[in-house]
């Protein structure tokens, strides 16, 4: 797996909303703004599924996802790609439920989406646009 740099982790920590892109097995794209996103360690990202429909269906058909990291104070932008796994029970699922309910009591916190980072690409405009960073 790929391990994010300190600068990337710092940029990640400044955001509240993360665009999460998925695609069906036929290649139909879908992107949603995700509030419940957490960098669990240098190579793992958690998303809480509260209201996913197409996103969850896509992940079950095609586990490849992309996350766009850009916003005020991030010092640039990059795209994280990874493979997602959905958990609906177990200790990690329970941790996710506690996390969601501590912020938004009453939200369903249906499933945990665990993304293992596989690649990171440059998104800033210029000659390095699209360059693989990790």
From TrEMBL:
Domain Pyridoxamine 5'-phosphate oxidase N-terminal: 4-122
Gene3D superfamilies for the chain: Electron Transport, Fmn-binding Protein, Chain A
Pfam families registered for this protein in UniProt: PNPOx_N
Signal sequence segment: none
Entry protein name: Pyridoxine 5'-phosphate oxidase superfamily flavin-nucleotide-binding protein
